[in-house]
Amino acid sequence: MKIVLFTHPSFLEHQSMPRYANMLFNGMEEREHEVIIWSPKARFYKLSIFNFLKKWLGYIDQYIVFPIEVKFKLLNASKDTLYVFADQALGPWVPLVKNKKHVVHCHDFLALKSALGKIPENPTSFSGKQYQNYIRNGFSKGKNFISISKKTQEDLHELHQGSIVKSAVCYNGLSRPFEPLSPSKSRIVLEEKLKIKLSQGYIMHIGGNQYYKNRKGVIEIYDSWRSKSKNNIKLLLIGEEPTQELIELQQKSLFKDDIHFVTNLEDQYINNVYSGALCLLFPSLDEGFGWPIIEAMASGCPVITTNRSPMNEVGGSAAFYIDKRPSDCKSQEKWKEDSVKILDKLISLDEIKSKEIVEKSLQQSKKFTTEYSLNAIESIYKEINQIV
Known about the structure:
Largest sheet: 6 strands, parallel
Shape: globular
Order of helices and strands: EHEHEEHHEHEHEHEHEHEHEHEHHH
């Protein structure tokens, strides 16, 4: 099978999308398919020394120059080629091959839903709304889709403005290997790296500052739990540099010395971080999939997450669940109290129960292997490619 894979340009600062595109590229090549990547090059983008101009010049590369290049390439392309879009955010290019065999991978529609006013916690600027509408008009010309969760698929069907011929769900597979490492050895490794005493274990969160990651809620739950618990277990928030709001929340805490923001942690330590943790506290408001849930489980780390799709799709019966953080202040107190009970329950498990949870988590993680994901995706590709 001949596959043309459309990907985000390398000059954009994406992280998860290049990993996903590489998984598709390598996986399909390993299955002996011929794969070519089509992606915009930085022509206008590299001309400016001003960051505020780079974005707009990058748009010229992506939405003016690149489509012209694609049209010329299509003149010599084989008729049996399957055109694959690694992300629905590449929607503006979908109309270029709408009458050819194609499939669009869908991850999450949070930006579009925000632009449509469906997520009041994340208001969108006027230009942002226009941009998301541009993307929506583009992917709505597509006919065949693969979503990474049932929740993403539901959003696709709600937001797509045309007719869908094929819609499938193929859950993500782990993009790199994770395994349960020795908790004590992992903590020693991290103590040397971070210069933080972690021998008693720690509660962890991993993720960026996006509103839906709810890092604020993580600190709120931890703060409330520490005020009621005799444990002096630390909290590690791994990811981006904290926002000013998060720093202020930390500084106001009675337990501020035990709340640590860990930034720029190399990938080689992530497996250790999960394995050394007492639990992953992941109270996301929304997700496309929720990579940390399955990464933690594969590392032998128990998970507390939000009882909403797709988090509960990924966590299954192996995770501990809390409600979504409410937006009104009155309900937030009860939310914290209820969440603290779940956290305390998990932290207080005896050795036998803890081992049972770890084993259950490991079994759940085996449902999300790269091999399983790629096999499912390849099956869909072949089905679409056989359409006359």
